Amino acid sequence: MNLLENIRLALEGLRANKMRALLTMLGIIIGIASVMAISTLGSAMTGSVSKTMDKIGGKNISVSLTPKNYDSQATLQPEDYITQDELNSFKETYADQIRAISLSSSLGSGKLNSGYVHKDVSVTGANPDYRLVNNINLVQGRFISDRDIQSSRNVIIIDTTLRNNLVGVNGDPTGMDITVKTKNTNETYTIIGVYEKVVIDNPLFNMGDDTRIECFIPITTAMSLNSASTSIPGYDNFTIMASANADTTAFAQITKQYFIKNMGALSDYTIEAQSMEAMVSEATSMLSTLSLGISVIAGISLLVGGIGVMNIMLVSVTERTKEIGIRKALGARNSAIRSQFIIEAIIICLIGGIIGVGLGSVLGVLGSSLLKFPSTPPVGPMIIALCFSMGIGVFFGYYPANKAAKLNPIDALRYE
Amino acid sequence: MRKKIIEMRGIVKSYYLGTPNELEILHGIDLDVYEGEFLSIVGPSGSGKSTLMNILGALDRPTQGHFFLDQLPMENVKDEGLSKIRNEKIGFVFQTFNLIPRSSALNNVALPMLYGGKSRSVRTKRAKELLELVDMTARSHHRPNELSGGQKQRVAIARAMANDPAIILADEPTGALDTHTGRMVMDIFHRLHQEQGKTIILITHNTELALETERTIRLKDGSIVENKINEKIQLEGSYESA
């Protein structure tokens, strides 16, 4: 009595009760499909997270002044700010760990006017390192230089969209003057460069208004324009790009300790430093916890499906008591009867599993493309799902099959 | 001296219904059946016919006594061993046919060979031969519910022959059939007996049918009360003309 014959027998049995077999499979199909859909979606998400990390800088550490107590009405006092001197000495102390420090200061959003072109823009003051740290891809002209910083020049870097509006795709806007009016300022800047915006096609990182055009001016220019209304002696946040061989998570801690130690007493604020790596791994671990949670729920539906299979197999054994008696009278060994029923249960589960894997993969791919993640169904979970569904067949098929195998042939033959 | 296919000495079968009330069905049966014999076992219901048949057919074990089937001692045979004996030594023919409803006639006949581990091609070839022997070739792909009672019983006889068993055990094989088809079935048994020299044990309460066999054992209340050689009845004509 070989495997092939058993499979043939089992298929014969299932064919006799197609509808029942299908309904029994449904539990397995739903369970496997949800596990499969979740893992497809999950792997698509983690894949895109690590891809995005490369784009937005995996070596970055963002440092900021944050309130000690979020409930308090604390405002930053002038002495709280990190001054340029403090920053310089920090940079000297850890010269081997730091590749660049990006500083920025927002001037807020405003209106750009140049001839017929009127656009909403936001203006950010930046230092030369900003380009490297934030992965600014310059396509024309140059970025902010140290001399621009020193003399607080009114120069500006615009993006390609704005360039296209001003001078067309093939035009060169450098040297052009544009006027930008913000809440407190109304300045004319000379365009010195054009950058291409990095498109981050990841909804997880797609925060805030994406359509606004961002322009960069020297940070000193921005700060002096800002101080016209309020006097700010330093920075409340900056971003460090660690050198290639540095451990960013550890260096974030070092940075935090350094500033807490060297800045003296802060009123209501403290320094927080977080590496991008830590943030991303936090996000990824949150994602995997989430998909684990959903998988557990899917696992429960698999369990229910397995119980359904067991139930139907028990019904089937009772229904076929006489047949079992006949088979035994004809010389079927207990093991032959047992394997016939186990294989029948396995086949139910395996067919359910195959349908479930197919359905789940389609759902997963569909779902991820809806969320704009590129994805392919992962092969590992596919194989695990199929093996698992077979395991369910063995586990939940064993008891009914054993019951069938242990039937007394005389009683079974007499059963009506 | 012909070979003994069955040798029973002092076979007792009792059932435990609760602890003390032991119900003894068979009280010491002695029975010898020789190769190529056509034997009938008769008796009223409750006489222990079925119990004896279950023991003869290796479906059950005696409580006491010695039983040799085809010279094999049947004591201490495990369940798996009994399965093998049923498969190789015994061909069952039941009153209610007991065919597998979902399988074709051909697959029903092939089933004992499947459990005997024969290859598919061997099974199919042999099953076709057997169906031809009982004149059922034309119906070999029909399922039992597409067959008449007589046709079903012919398929069942073909199935009983599948592994060329030492004995055919027929339990009221004509009990569910009308006189005419019952006659046809009996003729097949006679043919198997005479042409192939099969040992056949017919269990029946029809004394007329019993008279057709070579020897009749009469059971009453769990004991053999008669063991009679029947006079040779001229039956050849009936199935030669059939």
From TrEMBL, chain A:
Keywords: Cell membrane, Membrane, Transmembrane, Transmembrane helix. InterPro entries: ABC3_permease_C, MacB_PCD, Macrolide_Exporter_MacB. The chain crosses the membrane at residues 21-45, 292-317, 341-367, 379-399. It is a multi-pass membrane protein. Residues 22-253 form the MacB-like periplasmic core domain. Belongs to the ABC-4 integral membrane protein family. Residues 296-409 form the ABC3 transporter permease C-terminal domain. This is FtsX-like permease family protein. It is found in: Cell membrane. Its main location: membrane.
TrEMBL record, chain B:
InterPro entries: AAA+_ATPase, ABC_transporter-like_ATP-bd, ABC_transporter-like_CS, MacB-like_ATP-bd, P-loop_NTPase. Keywords: ATP-binding, Nucleotide-binding, Transport. One of its GO terms (molecular function) is ATP binding. The keyword S-adenosyl-L-methionine does not apply. Residues 6-242 form the ABC transporter domain. PANTHER family: CELL DIVISION ATP-BINDING PROTEIN FTSE, LIPOPROTEIN-RELEASING SYSTEM ATP-BINDING PROTEIN LOLD. This is ATP-binding cassette domain-containing protein.
